[in-house]
Design a protein that fits this description.
The protein is an alpha+beta fold. It contains 10 helices and 15 strands. The protein folds into 2 domains: 184 residues, no CATH class; 34 residues, no CATH class. α5 runs antiparallel to α6.
Length: 306
């Protein structure tokens, strides 16, 4: 099954998992999106003023549905930074198909990222504004809905986003917020960030044990640019082909996943002899021992200025 992810700061874990049956996800509205220009993404910039005014009229009629956002990736560093309090929070893994089955009728669709406005919307706008026929205006409304809720500028593409839009009034008001109550059978894992403190690691483990979810902690390795995860048994997992999978090849020293079968990762192959040899051959150490390092650096900086 396809998996999707949602990121959180550590301080909301009790609100996200308030009981043993549901996971609570806070929703927002298009007017509160991060990018204030998203609603206008679909238009060409050279349209006549009368068309823009007509489009503005239609957009303001666009219903505001509670919306919550997911990502296709659990290893997006910007997502961990922005939405999980600088890598100290957590993410939740969901089964997409189960979400779609449970919330059947509500769109859970990919977000499209574009450099330029989509030409179709402008063409539909010109037609609707020209004929003023209700069916053409309804076509415009439908297309505007998709553009408003499921398109963003490419600057946001790192989010690799999927959006849920509550068109069937499935959210509940809890403490003044619109909350989507997701059954725990749709949830598979709690993923803890690499900078999580010990208290949060312990509390998140307790939550995972209480509601019977897998628990993983992200680790930033040395040999691979992509982070990996370990569970409480110290087994290693990596994100491959859009799935978190148990790593086949591990470093026998640090347990970092390896791309090829080997005993040790490149960094764990470094021995004391390698470090001592590198120190002996470090030209800055030789200059320092001869009392020439400061003079060399001063001369180097002068040359670089010229």
């Amino acid at each position: 099954m396809s998996k999707i992810y949602k990121y959180f700061s550590a301080d909301v874990i009790k609100k996200v998992f308030p009981d043993d049956d549901f996971c609570n996800l806070k929703c927002s509205f298009p007017k509160d999106y991060n990018d204030p220009y998203e609603l206008f993404l679909g238009l060409k910039r050279d349209l006549k003023p009368e068309y823009l005014a007509f489009y503005n009229e239609i957009v303001h009629e666009l219903p505001q549905f509670p919306t919550t956002c997911f990502s296709k990736s659990p290893i997006s560093s910007p997502m961990w930074a922005h939405y999980a309090n600088n890598h100290s929070g957590f993410a939740i893994e969901f089964e997409l198909e189960k979400l779609q089955q449970y919330f059947d009728g509500c769109p859970i669709w990919d977000v499209s990222y574009r450099k330029e406005p989509h030409p179709n919307l402008s063409d539909i706008l010109v037609k609707a504004a020209g004929t003023l026929k209700p069916r053409h205006v309804q076509d415009l409304r439908k297309y505007t809905f998709v553009e408003a809720y499921f398109s963003k500028y490419e600057e946001w593409s790192y989010e690799n986003e999927i959006r849920f839009v509550d068109t069937l009034n499935m959210t509940k008001k809890i403490e003044g917020n619109d909350i989507l109550r997701v059954p725990l059978e749709c949830v598979t894992k709690i993923l803890v960030g690499p900078r999580a403190n010990e208290d949060f690691i312990v509390s998140s483990l307790r939550v995972a044990e209480r509601i019977k979810l897998d628990w993983l902690k992200q680790i930033v390795g040395k040999s691979n640019p992509k982070p990996y995860f370990i569970d409480f048994e110290k087994r290693s997992f990596h994100f491959n082909n859009n799935q978190l999978r148990l790593a086949e090849h591990l470093c026998q020293s640090c347990s970092e996943p390896l791309l090829i079968e080997d005993k040790l990762c490149p960094w764990c192959k470094v021995t004391d002899w390698h470090e001592e040899d590198a120190a002996r051959n470090n030209p800055f150490r030789l200059l320092e021992s001869a009392g020439l390092l400061e003079e060399y650096l001063k001369g180097y900086n002068e040359i670089k200025k010229n």
